[in-house]
Every structure is written in C-alpha cells, then in structure tokens.
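Deviation from plan, reported transparently: arginine complex.
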Amino acid sequence: MKLWGGRFTKPTNELVDEYTASISFDQKLAQYDIQGSLAHVEMLAKCEIIPAKDAEEIKKGLKIVAEKIKAGEAELTEVNEDIHMNVEKLLIDEVGAVGGKLHTGRSRNDQVALDMRLYLRDSLVTLVELLTKLQEALLEQAQSNLDTILPGYTHLQRAQPVLFAHHMMAYVSMFERDIERIQDSFKRVNRSPLGAGALAGTTFPIDREYVAEKLNFDGVVENSLDAVSDRDFVVEFLSNASLSIMHLSRLSEELVQWSSAEFNFVELDDAFCTGSSMMPQKKNPDVAELVRGKSGRVYGHLIGMLTTLKGLPIAYNKDMQEDKEGMFDTVETLKGALALFAPMIATMEVKKDNMYEAVAKDFSNATDLADYLVNKDLPFREAHAVVGQVVLHCIQENIYLLDLSIADFRNFSKLIEEDIYDVLAPRAVVNARDVVGGTARNRVADQMTQADKRLSESKSWIEIHAKKVNVLK
Ligand code: ARG
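Because the crystal trials were delayed, the predicted structure below was used instead.
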C-alpha cells in the first residue's frame, strides 16, 4: 500500500505512477533529504514531540538507509513516487513502525523545499570555487602577456591595439561579477523552510530555528505559505548561471576565432581539442564550441522555470516538481564547462608574434594621429577628417601610417612633426591609454593587483561557506 493510500479504494494506474514519479531524478537529493530528516528528528525529540529513544532508532535507521543508497543497495521505486517517500519506506523497512514517526509535523512540501536549498547551496560553493580557478588561469595568462599586443576589435574590425593581458582581465571582471551574484544569492538560498508543514505551519510545538541552526542555515523562511511555494532561489540561480554560461560562451567564441587559420592568435592544447573522422589535418576547438552551444539549454531552463511558476497560486502545486531537472542540469552543465575552461585557458599557447603582426599591419593607430593633432589645438572633428584622408591615401598606396615619410605627413597637416613616429608605434599607442582601467601597461598591472586581492577574498569566502554547507560530509 502507498504511504498515503488510506483514503483510496483502488491502486493507482501504472501510467500515473510512472508519469507523476520524480524518483528517477530526485534521487540526487537522497543524502540531503536524509540530512534534513536527521535534523528534524533530533528537533522532534528535543521538543518532546516524540520520545528520545524513538528518535535514536530513527536516526540509526536513517544512517543505514543513507549508506545503502550510497552503495546502490537500496531499491528506489516509482511506486513510492519520490525520494522523500522512498526514504521513509526504506526507514520503516529498516526499523519498523517507529520509522513512521519521522514525518510528524512535516510535509513533503517543506521537505522538498529544504532539500532543494541544501543541494543548491552546496553547488553554489563549488561553482564559486570553479569560477575562482578559471579567474586564476586567466590572471596567469595576463601575467605572461603583460607585453603582448593584439588588435582590439569593434564590429569585429580592428579598432585600437590593446594588451592581451587587458583582454584576459576583462573576463576576470566578468567572472568576478558572476561570483558576486552567486555570493549574494547564497544569503537567500541559505534559509530553512522546514516547519512550514504542508502550507500553514504545524500543530506540534516544533522549533524551526533549532533545525535551521543544526543545518547551518542563516535563519528560516518565515511565512509558511511562502516557505513551501517559493522557488525564487531556483530562478535566481538559473539567471545567474545564464549570465555565467553567456560569459563562457563569449570567451568560447573568441577562442574559436583566435584558433582559426584566419586569426592564428592562439593554439589550444591538443588535450582540449578533437579531430575529424574524415579530414586528417583537422584540430577542432570542440570544447569551446560545445560550451557555446550549451548556453542554449541553460537559458532554456531559466525560461522553463519562470514559465512553470508564473500561473501558480500559493502554496505547493505539483507543477513545482518541474523545478529539479533544470536546476540539476544547469549545475552539472556549468560545473563541466568551468572545470574544462580553467585548464584549457592555462595551457593555451599565445602566438605573440602573430598578434603583433596584426597590429603592425593595420590602421589601429589612426585615433592616435587624430589625438596628436588635437593636442596641437586642432578641433577633434577636423583632426578626424585629416586622418581619414591620410588613411585613404595609405590604402591607395598599400602602405600603413608608419610607412609615410614626414613630408608625406605634412602634405596633410603642417602640425605633424618628427615625433609622430614615436607616438604611432604600437607600444606607445597602448601605453598612451593611461587612465583608470585603460590598456596602458601600468594600468593593466593595477587591475591585476586588484584582481589578485579579490581572488584571496573569494578564497576566504569559499573556506567559510564550504564549512557551512558541509553538514553532509
Ligand atoms: N516530489 C515532489 C516534488 O518534487 C515532492 C513534494 C510533493 N508534495 C505533494 N504534496 N505531492 O515536488
């Protein structure tokens, strides 16, 4: 008989069992579920809702069930629908009728909300850790390339030269915001919904704060209706994850471009590329492409969750069972991408000479010629027009600005003097951007020092929070 079979006169249709069951995917929550139950049963005994010796037996039983599930020795069935009822059933099989006391003052509605939060907060710490590792790899590439110049692009047209370190640091900043977002969301995830019961609270004199403290939560989700029906924290996670995978996808796109023969700016390590079954010469940046591709499924989970929730009256509705697979898949997808990206970036060969060549054979110093004229008091708009003429002339002659003689230059403007060659040299062009956050070498070095500090802050956050979520281990 089903745990809830009392008021039914017929067995459930088999297809209904199959359709409504969540055990195939929510078994991922097993250890969190049992951890929550251990805290709950301790509270029941402390509040004298059940006798201490019953609580002891239940705890012993739960630990055996936990071990059996871990070892793959427990039978989890669709008939028992979800992880919560499977665990309860296994417990009763283990310790007998006393196991039936576990669910006193609790509902699957507050239980599942608890499990989701326990799972997610654990994953958030791991994700911050992985993001930090990726930042370290990017920072290392920045350190090795503080003198590497490449064209910066707008509209994918060469625009102005930048340091490769500067480019890497842009991603460090992006991932830093991702980390901040996750850290901020952690506060909202890390609250205990347990004690909300089915929706209205419970008649038993429970102690919600005690359970929250046992599980290292920062407090409870206060309103019982909200506690069981809130999945904002899942949406927030999916949204934050969408931003992270979008950032990874943009970096992926750059790696794909840079590793093409057309750019030839980087060579990805063989260990992070794959070949073609037909074309023997090929080396494909599959990891980067796949990460770019996987952004689609993560955005899909975000829109899916928002859509599932949008018409739901409070409190729990079965629709909410749809909260799990998207969240699990997003955690796995992001973890997988980050775990690969850090070593792929760390082992990437940067082809400094090719990058420099692309800067030298180009007009990305044209703005600097205009700025030079502005410094001689020519209005910028006029300077822009003069330089446009110079560039047009060079294109017609198939040469670059630095190939012009001083006489050539002075045909366009008498303001130009010998010092122009120093001004237009690529390294000078880079170092002239000497403003906060600019690409001048010293400014990029400043960014790196700051980033290094923030990295150690992230690391202490990880250490503190890894302990918080560590109730399982
Ligand atoms: N398997 C359910 C879920 O994941 C657990 C909660 C079910 N609650 C209920 N009253 N049917 O959402």
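The CA atoms of residues 361 and 400 lie 7 Å apart. We consider this an acceptable substitute for the interim report.
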